[in-house]
Design a protein that fits this description.
The complex is a heterodimer of chains A (about 270) and B (about 280).
Chain A lengths: L2 E11 L11 E12 L3 E5 L6 H9 L6 E6 L2 E2 L7 E4 L11 H11 L4 H14 L15 H14 L4 E5 L7 H18 L2 E6 L2 H7 L2 E6 L4 E7 L2 H6 L4 H6 L1 H23 L1
Parallel strand pairs in A: 3-8, 3-9, 6-7, 7-8
Antiparallel strand pairs in A: 1-2, 1-4, 4-5, 9-10
Helix pairs in contact in A: 2-3, 2-4, 3-4, 6-9
Chain B lengths: L3 H4 L1 H12 L9 H21 L11 H13 L7 H32 L1 H14 L4 H12 L3 H25 L3 H9 L4 H38 L5 H10 L3 H29 L7
The structure holds adenosine-5'-diphosphate and magnesium ion (MG).
Protein name (chain A): Taurine transport system ATP-binding protein
Pfam families (chain A): ABC_tran
Keywords (chain A): ATP-binding, Cell inner membrane, Cell membrane, Membrane, Nucleotide-binding, Translocase, Transport
């Protein structure tokens, strides 16, 4: 059981500007956020609101201008396999086949070739790609690529999965299937997850908690809990859940919250 | 020689544009037009020499050149067969290629990854790059002597800039997501370099090597004209001194064919080694 904590985190671009004032921009302001192992926290916000910046901070790709980010109380120092990232544009390595992409985290740890390939095969099977190990990245469909990307992140055995709109580039049908897949994988892995999305529906369906990030500067303006996640894991069909009156009501509510934050911005 | 194939795609674009217009006759494929051009040149050459428009000392007939080529292969010229001359030249170019890869790739990595490396090496490369290799050949001969070492040194120097620059460009062009992904999967700085930065620079490095081969071949032949006792450049230089024009022309054709062959082989290697370069 681990917790990833943002405490009063702010981010200014460019970080620690050489020439203060020139092109400076406060992107995130006073972010307080916690993600525990059992949670899947969905961050929702319009494009440009700072979602990717927030995830990059969690990953350790960026350093906050102010505030601290800790894992179980220990401040993070740059990126680590503790917090594996799944990218929107998959970021798979085209010079490796699917299997070796997944095996990379094992390789980085010094696991011998035969063993890491065997373990990658297991992960391939787990993400439903048992026969795709030899395939080149460009031979895979968008959905398959994201499965490989997720398997690769799992191979790092992270305590947290950081997912930056992993399903954003997929067509609607594939996306629905992948949403359910993502839930199961997350639950099996036991890792906490931070999911970025700009789809209200996706946030509601997948998140145990949904936080709204409103832009200029990015602030967390609303937070709601949702239980649809558990319903799907207990066997309810995604279509049925999305069609239920309570889902629709919460969808409308969340839409209202996001619009309210937009209007606030205009008024300010 | 290195650029021609890239630029070739431009006229082809124009060609397709034409094809879409409602023409009665289908336009000739570019390859046919090229073949006709070559045929016309050879025919003009044959006529010029058949009617002795130019003295055969200056312009031997195509038949004579083919014969000279045959004699070169079978008996040779100035103590060596064509194969031996070509062998000597290829030995130099591949020796130089290996040396310039061994020096150029680490240098390119240093420029691409470290400020110190860039600060130290950039001025050297930028000084060397625009210099015609024959400009420093005399100095190299003074320093290293007239033997194999001076020729290989000159070729290495002519090959280095494109290998170094393409390596540093490849290293710098690595995708940020690719690097970040590795870091978030637990890679150390050294592992990021080995597992991500280098592999992703390979296509660029191979392109640099191919361009270097073209540059090296040009330099090699020129260096052999000036200072050598074997090699294809030396062969045509000797033949020219005795006004054996058919061998000079045969030699030039061989030089061109080898250049085309090197380019072709390099491209095939690129295609085999980095099939993913086309899919990025
Ligand atoms: N490297 C950067 N330098 C300066 N500004 C940036 C940089 N990256 C992002 N931004 C700005 O920060 C804001 C938030 O960007 P981002 O985190 O990518 O938002 P989102 O992922 O929600 O679309 C945007 O206005 C963007 O222009
Ligand atoms: Mg984004």
């Amino acid at each position: 059981m681990s917790t990833l904590t943002f405490r009063s985190v702010s981010l200014r671009y460019p970080p620690r500007a050489a020439r203060a004032g020139v092109g400076e921009k406060l992107v995130l302001d006073g972010i307080d956020l916690q993600v525990a192992s059992h949670e899947l926290v969905a961050i929702i916000g319009r494009s440009g609101s700072g979602k990717t910046s927030l995830l990059n901070l969690a990953a350790g790709f960026l350093e906050p201008t102010a505030g601290t980010i800790t894992v179980d109380g220990v401040p993070i120092e740059g990126p680590s396999a503790d917090r594996a990232v799944v990218f929107q544009d998959d970021a798979l390595y085209p010079w490796l086949d699917a299997r070796d992409n997944i095996a990379l985290p094992f390789k980085l740890k010094g696991v011998p070739l035969a063993e890491r390939r065997a373990r990658a095969e297991q992960l391939l099977a787990r993400v439903g790609l048992a026969d795709a190990g030899d395939r080149r990245i460009w031979e895979l469909s968008g959905g398959m690529r994201q499965r490989v990307g997720i398997a690769r992140a799992l191979a790092a055995e992270p305590r947290f999965l950081l997912l930056d709109e992993p399903l954003g580039a997929l067509d609607a049908l594939t996306r629905t299937r992948m949403q359910e897949f993502l839930l199961r994988i997350k639950a099996e892995s036991g890792a906490g997850a931070l999911l970025i999305t700009h789809s209200i529906e996706e946030a509601l369906l997948l998140g145990t908690r949904i936080v709204v990030l409103s832009p200029n500067p990015g602030r967390l303006t609303a937070e709601i809990e949702a239980g649809f996640n558990a319903e799907v894991l207990n066997g309810a069909s995604v279509a049925a859940v999305k069609a239920s009156p309570i889902f629709k009501r919460m969808h409308a509510g969340l839409t209202g919250l996001i619009h309210a934050s937009a209007e606030e911005e205009i008024a300010a | 020689m290195t650029l021609s194939t890239d630029i070739d795609t431009l006229p082809q674009v124009a060609e397709t544009g034409e094809a879409e217009r409602p023409l009665k006759a289908r336009p000739l494929p570019v390859a046919i037009i090229s073949a006709i051009t070559i045929g016309v040149i050879i025919a003009a050459w044959g006529l010029a020499s058949a009617y002795a428009l130019v003295s055969p000392v200056f312009l031997p007939s195509p038949r004579q050149v083919v014969l000279a080529l045959y004699n070169l292969v079978v008996t040779g010229f100035v103590d060596a067969t064509l194969a031996e001359h070509v062998g000597a030249s290829l030995y130099r170019i591949f020796g130089a290629l290996i040396a310039s890869i061994l020096i150029g790739i680490p240098a390119g990595i240093a420029i691409g990854t470290s400020r110190l490396g860039r600060g130290i090496l950039d001025p050297i490369v930028e000084f060397l790059r625009p210099l015609p290799p024959l400009a420093y050949l005399p100095l190299i001969i003074i320093w290293v002597g007239i033997g194999e070492a001076s020729k290989i040194t000159v070729i290495v120097l002519s090959m280095l800039p494109s290998i170094i620059l393409s390596t540093s460009a490849g290293v710098r062009g690595v995708s940020k997501d690719h690097v970040n992904a590795a870091r978030s999967l637990g890679a150390s700085r050294r592992q990021v370099l080995r597992e991500v930065v280098l592999p992703s620079a390979v296509p660029s490095i191979l392109t640099g090597v191919r361009i270097a081969l073209g540059a090296g071949w040009t330099t090699l032949v020129a260096a052999e004209l000036v200072a050598a006792t074997s090699g294809i450049g030396f062969m045509i230089q000797s033949a020219a001194q005795f006004l054996v024009t058919d061998i000079v022309i045969a030699g030039i054709i061989v030089i061109a064919l080898i250049a085309i062959l090197l380019e072709y082989v390099a491209r095939q290697i690129e295609r085999r080694l980095v099939p993913w370069a086309a899919h990025r």
